[in-house]
Amino acid sequence: MTRTITALFDQRRDAEAAEARLKAANIDAGHIGIHDKTSAGYSDTAASTHAEPGIWASIRNAFLPDDDRHTYEEGVRRGGFLLTADVGEEHVEDAVRVLEEADTVDLDDRAQQWKSSGWAGTPPVSLSEGYGDDTVPTGALGATSLGETSTGTASAGALGEEVIPIVEESLVVGKREVDRGGVRVRSYVTEVPVHEQIRLRDERIDVQRRAVDLPLSAADGDAFREQTIDVTATGEEAVIGKTARVVEEVVVSKTSDEHVEQIDDTVRRTDVEIDRDIARPDAKG
Length: 285
Prior knowledge:
Blueprint: E1 2-9, H1 12-24, E2 29-35, H2 66-77, E3 81-88, H3 92-101, H4 107-116, E4 149-150
Antiparallel strand pairs: 1-3, 1-4, 2-3
């Protein structure tokens, strides 16, 4: 079983990119088409009907409600591009996810914008629009989100018959990033008093005069010469220098891991119970 999914784009390149994404995702999708003003059946003025499907005539299994069908037509009429694709039942969620990640038009928001600027929306359905006595408006057929429609053939019936739409919800699970906290590392400079001891040497010069009474020897014949003696005293003083060494490192790093979270929720669907044997009152002749 297949379903037809539809999406509207403002630019052809966006529609073509979405088509490429569908094909690259290995999704079982066929009859992918991009429709615009040049497509067969397009009309600038007339809205599609069951008898005159217009642009929908070339789209297989395109059973959409009137509101959605005419909104898509208005989007094309305003220069948009309609992408349709038949997707296998098991790949519908994947295909919808691919198109949601593309630059698609939010059909409901866009319809509200057009209506606020004067667009009348879906035209009223009447026999003059092409629904004969043996047909049912296609709007009586249900559709799921993003333009999904189940394949099948619309059966003919008399005017006035009642149709119960079968609606089914699907669960779409996504993910987003959240802040789990962090760490801030700041470096700053402090001064710490340091006390050291060093031993220094100092020299002193002492001059003394001593009384001597000795005879002058022959060796001292030049005793009356002039002499000069220079003596220098030295001392030590402290010299302060500083050297820097790396003594420790602070390393800040981040790691990540993945875990599987189980999502439990409920989705709704419409079930139909048919009672074929219902007692009827006797007809009076």
